[in-house]
Amino acid sequence: MIYTLENHELKHAVEEMLFHLLPTETLSRADSVEQLTEPYCRSILTEENGEAAARAIVCMDGAVHEAEKRASVTGLATLDYKRTITELVKTTVYDAVVPFLPQAPVWGSLTGVRPAKLARGMIERGMTRGEAAVELREHFHVSPERTALTIRAAATAMEMDKTIGENDISLYVGIPFCPSRCYYCSFVSATTAQSGKLIEPYLDTLCREIEETAALVRAAGKQVQSVYIGGGTPTTLDEHQLARLLSALENHFDFSHLREYTVEAGRPDTITPEKLRVLKSAGVGRVSINPQSMNDAVLAAIGRKHGAADVLRAFEQARQAGFDEINMDLIAGLTGDTAETFAQTVDTLLNLSPENITVHTLAIKRGADLTDKAAAAAQRETVSQMLDGASHALQNAGYGPYYLYRQKFMAGGFENVGWCKPGTECFYNVSMMEELQTILSLGAGGVSKRVVRETGWIERANNPKYPLEYIQAADRLANGKKKLLFPKK
Length: 489
Description:
Blueprint: E1 2-6, H1 11-21, E2 28-29, E3 40-48, E4 51-60, E5 63-72, H2 78-97, H3 115-124, H4 129-138, H5 144-161, E6 168-175, E7 177-178, E8 190-191, H6 192-195, H7 199-220, E9 223-231, H8 239-252, E10 260-266, H9 273-281, E11 286-289, H10 296-301, H11 308-320, E12 326-332, H12 339-352, E13 356-361, H13 373-396, E14 400-405, E15 416-420, H14 427-433, E16 438-442, E17 447-452, E18 457-462, H15 467-472, H16 477-485
Parallel strand pairs: 1-2, 1-3, 6-9, 6-16, 7-8, 9-10, 10-11, 11-12, 12-13
Antiparallel strand pairs: 3-4, 4-5, 13-15, 14-15, 17-18
Helix pairs in contact: 1-2, 3-4, 3-5, 4-5, 7-8, 7-16, 8-9, 12-13
């Protein structure tokens, strides 16, 4: 699809909405209306006498649909002005494209990754939960099911927010190594076959960053509420390397206020009784064992080096090691999976009865071939059946949704949802996704965020992305966190 921007330069807003609605289209911008050929989208913005007007004209399949919206912009601050005109532009593109679709997307015109944060903002500004739900349905066109999901996640975040003090922070520690690379993976991670020689120098650098960050945290008067060790696959480390990492954290940070300690054991082929004992003895209370599927053919197709039997073994070993809070991840939309086989995976996990089950939707890699519209439509329908079936099964088994997020380029425009048994919500997941508190990220690819709780203002500091770059930057890793913890007045 070719598009024009007329009297504005909100390219990202227009492209984001077009991709959200028409993921099989290749987008390109024309310099003038004269260059347009079908299919096309014209996005026009005008402003007169303190009122902004956005108009979208979309031509596809020989038909034309138009949409127009207006809003007062008189006296708006710069940020509010930009938000208003951006929403006008996105909403008119949405309204002009939707008549061409076989059905409206379940998330309506929402393209952001944190829908619950949007709902929470409505409630905090004085709306009731019911009014916020109406706003999501009528203004943003979110389906009733996704509206209910969003309001429930927002309510969980608001309750959790009450338990966070001004000086409370959380830690994320990244281990960017895996035994093999799954075909769908977009994370910064290296296989042990390629980069195993970097593990020891990586740990050297990480332990140094732990020591330096802990000193900054003490000096700033902060206290750690939760720790989340993710990856990659942290249990790619052997038991001695794991013990070294956990000892460094315990020796340098004050964990007397710790309410949650999670390690992503992740790949069951990396889990052993010895490693589980190391985790348990260090105070880790929550582990993730992530099968993604319990179908051996699907696991082989995505590049996993384990089978369903390995998942069952790892889960039983974790229970025997004393872990009473286990999360298990699934992905809807994997190659070779069907609605029926995905439902069988969900049933298998429900029989195991872990405390948390997180249902992800496959995120489409950028640059993937999406030109087959029929195949894309079929995939959307299959993923929809998978997610709806999982939602019903989980609710019937007593699980409830406690957090959710979306990703760009997600199959069918759906979502990732964390489900839990009552009282077993993962504090870190909610705090991180809803941006409730400052989180310091250690390790390659880490993004630390300082959250100013009174205003919601967020500042970031990034670590180098790749393991080798991270190792080479050992002398500079604490600088960004120092700026976050000691901001200039």
